[in-house]
Amino acid sequence: MVDKKRILVTGGAGFLGSFLCGRLLGEGHHVLCLDNLYTGSIDNVRGFLDNPRFQLMQADVAEPVSASVDQIYNLACAASPVHYQSDPIATMRTNVLGALNLLDLAVKCNARILQASTSEVYGDPLVHPQREDYRGNVSITGIRACYDEGKRAAETLFYDYNRMYGTQVRIARIFNTYGPGMRADDGRVVSNFVVQALRGEDLTVYGDGLQTRSFCYRDDLVRGLMALMNCEEANALPVNLGNPGEFTMLELASLVLDMTGSTSGLCFQPLPQDDPVQRRPDIGRATSLLGWRPEIGLRDGLSPTIRYFTEKLGRLAVAA
Ligand code: NAD
Ligand code: UDP
Questions:
Q1: Does 122 participate in catalysis according to the annotation?
Q2: The domain 6-177+216-243+280-296 is classified under which CATH number: 3.90.1170.20, 3.30.70.260, 3.40.50.720, 3.30.450.40?
Q3: Ligand 2 mean position to 4 CA, how many Å?
Q4: Catalytic pick from 73, 122, 147, 217?
């Protein structure tokens, strides 16, 4: 039987955080969800509000956090470039001050803490696929730096708290993850393409569309986060979590058009500054340490995602 814990999930009203809260409640844990609702929404956790083991705290991780918990998952930070770039200074504050505040809380409670880090710590990678020992190729000056450097600084704090205070830390380097629960205006490529296809609008392909990403389905990713948190051998080791299947944006667009039956065309737009050319995780460490590997391929993950957005857009149209 699973030992019942008190677990803090920051960013718990977001896309991945709300799904994680549901999974933790399903295992019988007490869940404290902390979120400032910047990109998250109460709607994402509405189904948990009547559960006596669930508590929602509207707060900012850049401010000191007070709670008594056994584990902390730090997912607080807008993940979509559109949203994290709209207030880059707030993004840096969230990443760095948030990490400091939550690590202090972990020391106080003797709690184990997991950081939702990112493949963006590798920047525009010169090594392919990316392994955890690759140090990355990140711009300090560009528009993605608030996120990339913020997440890198956060990781550094995690390793230093581990060395100085013996804090049990877990670092998940998450690669592009999609699925039901995303906002229609999230701005990331999978939600953009599916929403545009369903609305009969042209799909906005940035650049020539030949850049690649590896897309992981939400359920696989959250299973990986929970396995990493509870793995005794993973202390202070960064672990890539993602699906190694690699696709160009043109391949993704064509799959979405095929699966939605949409007659939309493509609309080519300028490539944003510092947009990584290629990205694919080497998941050897996750497989050997956690026995984890993704089970849901892109086509199988897009089906429920398209169903979710079909229903969501229907509701939005009725409400308008
Ligand atoms: P999301 O934007 O849906 O969720 C982020 C949540 O954090 C939102 O609920 C938002 O309101 C909250 N938040 C933002 N700033 C905050 C602050 N200062 N204080 C409290 N709450 C705050 O994004 P997501 O896709 O669910 O990503 C969750 C985490 O995983 C993020 O940390 C992100 O960097 C990381 N990640 C996600 C992906 C991905 O592809 N989904 C990839 C790499 C890393
Ligand atoms: N992209 C695109 N059209 C969109 C949104 C994104 O072509 O409407 C591209 C973007 O330039 C990038 C890739 O899709 O090359 C993934 O972008 P996303 O914002 O999802 O995540 P990133 O990996 O860049 O953080």
A1: no
A2: 3.40.50.720
A3: 39
A4: 147
